[in-house]
Amino acid sequence: MERWSGRVALVTGASAGIGAAIVRELVKNGLIVVGLARRAELVEELSAQLKGAPGKLHAFKGDASKEEDILAAFDWIKKNLGRIDVLVNNAAILHMLSLMDENTSQWKQMFDLNVLGLSICTREALKLMKEKGVDDGHIIHINGVLGHTLGNLPGLIPYVTTKYAVTVLTEGLRRELVQLGSKIRGHGEELTY
Ligand SMILES: NC(=O)c1ccc[n+]([C@@H]2O[C@H](COP(=O)([O-])OP(=O)(O)OC[C@H]3O[C@@H](n4cnc5c(N)ncnc54)[C@H](OP(=O)(O)O)[C@@H]3O)[C@@H](O)[C@H]2O)c1
């Protein structure tokens, strides 16, 4: 991890759960981390807890399902930190829905965050990496077993559909980077559900 000290990471969904845990590890290993979440005050608290660690955590308030918020985050990163080296696409939501439920807005929320938000963050990270000559960056999509198998719990099909999309986006990203001859790496991290 030493060569990553001082380098810049963006973690989406940094206010709780796995995103907050990832942030802790990155800051402990010396990275300068931007934690994006709607509840930025929780990221501020985490930042205070991490005072004295080798790295630093900046809180950025935003909704990772909204393109304008994502663009604002990247704009802030470019102006204040000058580059990006690592993107962790962690933010996602799960609504339990039957295919019979008339709840289109929850379908949209899941697709807007889990699929489109992740894709826009990826695009913007790659753009900034290219602009700043970062050729050893990492883009990590947090996925799960449900990105590869349907399981048999009721109400999960819409969420599972978004996670299958993440599997395709991970492999698609890897292929595009190989085609470009880029050393930037695209990864999928598989958690258990
Ligand atoms: N937990 C598991 O067992 C498990 C298993 C497999 C896969 N996963 C995957 O792991 C990732 C994290 O899961 P988790 O369990 O840690 O989730 P979580 O505890 O529910 O936390 C979700 C995080 O995402 C953020 N978030 C939600 N909507 C957002 C939005 N519109 N814009 C920005 N941030 C948003 C939340 O922050 P705010 O509410 O402050 O915005 C929060 O920080 C997800 O991709 C999930 O699919 C988790």
TrEMBL record:
Matches recorded under Gene3D superfamilies: NAD(P)-binding Rossmann-like Domain (3.40.50.720)
InterPro entries membership: NAD(P)-bd_dom_sf (IPR036291), Sc_DH/Rdtase_CS (IPR020904), SDR_fam (IPR002347)
Keyword match Cytoplasm: no
Domain of life: Eukaryota
Keyword line: Oxidoreductase
SUPFAM superfamilies with a match to the protein in the record: NAD(P)-binding Rossmann-fold domains (SSF51735)
Keyword Oxidoreductase listed: yes
PANTHER family (alphabetical): DEHYDROGENASE/REDUCTASE SDR FAMILY MEMBER 11, DEHYDROGENASE_REDUCTASE SDR FAMILY MEMBER 11
Family: Belongs to the short-chain dehydrogenases/reductases (SDR) family.
Name the UniProt record assigns to this protein: Farnesol dehydrogenase
Native source species: Timema podura
